[in-house]
Specification:
Number of strands: 22
Distance between the termini: 58 Å
Shape: globular
Number of helices: 24
Largest sheet: 8 strands, mixed
Mean pLDDT: 86
Length: 620
C-alpha cells in the first residue's frame, strides 16, 4: 500500500503541475492578447524607429528567440513605403522621425526605394527628421533624404562604400584534414573559392571591383539627389583628413562636409519633435508620437481578391517547404498554384530578392510560373536588391523584367562542393576500406574521397545543368546560348550593366512592375488591385512575433559612440560567414547560388553555429 500511495501522490503532483502550467499559459496568452491591441493613432510625430533590418519578407519568429539571442527585428519594405506614402496626406501626422540608432541596414535597392519614399514625404511639405549616433552606408542613405539630419555629439558619419574582406576556409580545412572536392562551370563563379583558396582570384577581384564601383555610384547618386550640397566625394576620399581639420571631432567633421544639419543629444532632438508634434509629458521623450506598427495596421491595407497576384521569392532558394524569409521551392509553387486555383487572377508579378540556391527548387518555382503563363497570365518580374544565379533562373519566365541600377543580378553559373574526410581520418589515426561490385559502389565516397569516375560524373552533371541554365536564359532573352555564355560564366552584374546586356528590360521597382502587369493584362484603371500570394500567419506565429517583438523592444540599443558605428556589427558578419559555410556543406550538392552577393537579411549566430565554433575551438 505504501508503494501505491507513493504512485498516487506522484500522479497528483503531475496533475497539479500541469494545471498550474496551463493556468500560467492561459493568463500569459490573455495578457499577450490584451497588450497586442494596437495603440490608437492620434495626432503626433510618426516614430519611424528602425531597430533591425529592412527586408522583402520578414522571417517567422521562432520560440528560441524568447530565450534570448533571437534574430533582429525585420521590417517589410513595402509596409514602410506604404506608411510613408500614407503619411504625406494624413493630417494626424505632423512630422516623421527617423530613429536609426538600432538600424543595421538592408539591400541597397531597398534603401534607394525607401529613401525615395522619405523624399516624397519631405517634398509634400512635412518635416522629416533623422537621428543617429552613427550613420553608416545604408543608414546615411536614408538619413540624407530627411529635411533635418541630426547627429549625436559623440557620433560619426562613417560612410565607406561597398567592399570589405571575405573569409576563406582553405587553411582551416587543411588543418582539419577536410578536402573540398569542387565542381563548377564559369570563370567568375567564385562561390567555391573560399573552399579552395586563401585569397581572391584575379578574375573574382576584377568582377567584384567592377560591380562594387557601380553600386557606389548608385549610392552616391541617391545621396546627392537628397543633399546636393554635401561634400560626399571629398569626405569619402579622405575621412581622416576631414576629422583632423575639425580638431579630431568626427561629428564636427560631418557637419563641415554638409553631411548633417545639427549636432545635438537625444534630449534636444526630442524637444524639437515636441515643437513639431506637440508636448506629452507622460509619453517617452515628452512628445506626442505615433508608433510605426500601429500606423501600419491603421493605414496599410491589402486587398485579398485583387486581379494582380504578387508572389515574393525572398532569401536562399531551398528544396521542399520553408517558412517566410526563405524561398522553399514547394512552398512558393504552392502559393502560385493556390492563387490560380482560387481564380480571379489576370496577371502575376514576381518579386525576387534572392541570391539563388538549389537548382531543383529554382526549376520547381520556374515551372509553377510557367503554369501561370499557360493559363494566359502575363508575368512581370520585379528584382529587388539581389536577383542572381537561382534568383535569375526563376525570373526567366517573365514577359518583362524590371530591375534597379543597384540590383545585383546575373551570376549565371553552377557549382557543386562535396567534402570528403580522408585527411581527417588520417589525423585521427583511422582508416576506411571496403569492397566495390561496380565502379560506382559506395560513391561518392566521403571517407576516402570520390573516385575519378564519380568526379567525372558529378562534373558532367554540373556542365549539363549549366547548359540547361544557358538555354533557359537564351529562350527568355531571345538570344542564342552562345551569346548568353559570353555574359554568363558566373559573372555578377549591377542592374545598369545588366540592362545594357539585355538581361533585364527596364528600370523600376514593384509599383512599375504592377503597372506593367496591368497594362499587359489590359486591365482598366479601376481594376488594378493587388493580391499578395502569401501564407497567412497562424495564431502561434502571431503570438511568437508579438512576444519576440516585446523582448526586442526591451533590449534594443544603438551604438555607444562613433567608433561603435565605424566598427559595424562583426557578430553579424561572422554569423553570415558561418551560415554560408554550413549551408554549402549541408545543402544540395549542385547549386545555382551567388555567395558573393551577400545575405538578403542580416544573419545571427544560432546555437548550432555556436556549437560549430566551440567544436573548432576544441579541435585546435
Amino acid at each position: 500500500m505504501t508503494f501505491v500511495r507513493a504512485i498516487w501522490k506522484l500522479l497528483v503532483g503531475i496533475k497539479d503541475a500541469l494545471v498550474l502550467l496551463f493556468m500560467l499559459l492561459f493568463f500569459g496568452l490573455l495578457y499577450a492578447g490584451l497588450s497586442a491591441r494596437p495603440t490608437p493613432v492620434t495626432d503626433g510625430v510618426l516614430a519611424f524607429k528602425l531597430d533591425g533590418s529592412v527586408v522583402e519578407q520578414p522571417a517567422k519568429a521562432q520560440l528560441s528567440e524568447l530565450a534570448g539571442g533571437g534574430r533582429l527585428k525585420q521590417y517589410r519594405l513595402r509596409d514602410l513605403i506604404a506608411a510613408l506614402d500614407a503619411a504625406k496626406g494624413d493630417d494626424r501626422v505632423k512630422a516623421v522621425a527617423l530613429d536609426l540608432d538600432g538600424f543595421v541596414g538592408g539591400g541597397q535597392t531597398a534603401m534607394s526605394d525607401l529613401s525615395d519614399a522619405i523624399r516624397r514625404v519631405r517634398t509634400s511639405g512635412k518635416p522629416v527628421l533623422a537621428y543617429a549616433t552613427g550613420y553608416t552606408n545604408d543608414g546615411y542613405q536614408l538619413g540624407a533624404a530627411a529635411s533635418e539630419v541630426w547627429l549625436n555629439p559623440l557620433g560619426a558619419v562613417a560612410i565607406a562604400g561597398p567592399g570589405g574582406a571575405n573569409l576563406y576556409f582553405k587553411g582551416l580545412l587543411d588543418k582539419l584534414g577536410v578536402t573540398a572536392n569542387v565542381y563548377r562551370v564559369g570563370t567568375y563563379k567564385a562561390a567555391v573559392e573560399p573552399f579552395i583558396r586563401n585569397d581572391m582570384s584575379p578574375a573574382a577581384r576584377e568582377n567584384y571591383q567592377a560591380f562594387g564601383q557601380a553600386l557606389l555610384e548608385s549610392w552616391r547618386d541617391s545621396v546627392l539627389r537628397a543633399r546636393p550640397q554635401a561634400k560626399v566625394d571629398a569626405f569619402m576620399k579622405d575621412m581622416p583628413g576631414a576629422v583632423n581639420a575639425a580638431g579630431g571631432d568626427m561629428a564636427k567633421a560631418a557637419l563641415a562636409a554638409g553631411l548633417i544639419d545639427k549636432i545635438a543629444d537625444r534630449r534636444a532632438f526630442e524637444a524639437r519633435l515636441a515643437q513639431l508634434g506637440g508636448t506629452d509629458d507622460k509619453a517617452p521623450g515628452g512628445y506626442k508620437s505615433i508608433k510605426l506598427e500601429s500606423y501600419i495596421k491603421d493605414r496599410v491595407k491589402e486587398t485579398p481578391r485583387g486581379p494582380i497576384g504578387v508572389v515574393t521569392i525572398a532569401g536562399t532558394i531551398v528544396d521542399g517547404k520553408a517558412p517566410n524569409g526563405t524561398a522553399g521551392g514547394d512552398s512558393i509553387a504552392k502559393l502560385i498554384d493556390d492563387g490560380l486555383r482560387k481564380g480571379g487572377l489576370k496577371a502575376l508579378v514576381v518579386r525576387v530578392d534572392s541570391p539563388g540556391g538549389s537548382v531543383l527548387a529554382s526549376e520547381r518555382i520556374r515551372q509553377a510560373i510557367l503554369a501561370a503563363k499557360d493559363q494566359g497570365l502575363p508575368v512581370v518580374v520585379s528584382m529587388g536588391s539581389v536577383a542572381a544565379s537561382g534568383g535569375y533562373w526563376v525570373s526567366t519566365p517573365a514577359d518583362y523584367i524590371y530591375a534597379e541600377p543597384s540590383t545585383i543580378t546575373g551570376s549565371i553559373g553552377v557549382f557543386g562542393i562535396l567534402p570528403s574526410f580522408q585527411g581527417t581520418l588520417a589525423k585521427l589515426g583511422m582508416g576506411a576500406d571496403g569492397i566495390k561490385t561496380t565502379p560506382l559502389s559506395g560513391e561518392p565516397d566521403l571517407l576516402r574521397g570520390p573516385s575519378p569516375d564519380a568526379s567525372r560524373l558529378i562534373q558532367a552533371s554540373v556542365e549539363s545543368i549549366y547548359r540547361t541554365f544557358l538555354g533557359v536564359v537564351a529562350q527568355s532573352r531571345h538570344k542564342s546560348p552562345a551569346d548568353i555564355d559570353k555574359i554568363a560564366q558566373g559573372r555578377i552584374w549591377d542592374g545598369g550593366t545588366a540592362h545594357q546586356l539585355g538581361l533585364v528590360d527596364g528600370f523600376g521597382g514593384l509599383p512599375e512592375a504592377i503597372a506593367k502587369a496591368a497594362e499587359l493584362a489590359k486591365l482598366g484603371k479601376d481594376d488594378r488591385d493587388v493580391r499578395y500570394l502569401e501564407r497567412p500567419p497562424s495564431f502561434k506565429d502571431g503570438l511568437l512575433e508579438m512576444l519576440a517583438s516585446q523582448d526586442r523592444d526591451d533590449d534594443s540599443a544603438g551604438p555607444a559612440d562613433g567608433f561603435a558605428a565605424i566598427g559595424g556589427r562583426p557578430d553579424l558578419e561572422l554569423a553570415a560567414m558561418i551560415a554560408d559555410l554550413r549551408s554549402i556543406l549541408a545543402g544540395p550538392r549542385i547549386q545555382a547560388r551567388c555567395l558573393e552577393c551577400g545575405p538578403v537579411a542580416p544573419t545571427q549566430l544560432t546555437r548550432q553555429d555556436q556549437g560549430l565554433l566551440a567544436a573548432l575551438a576544441a579541435w585546435f
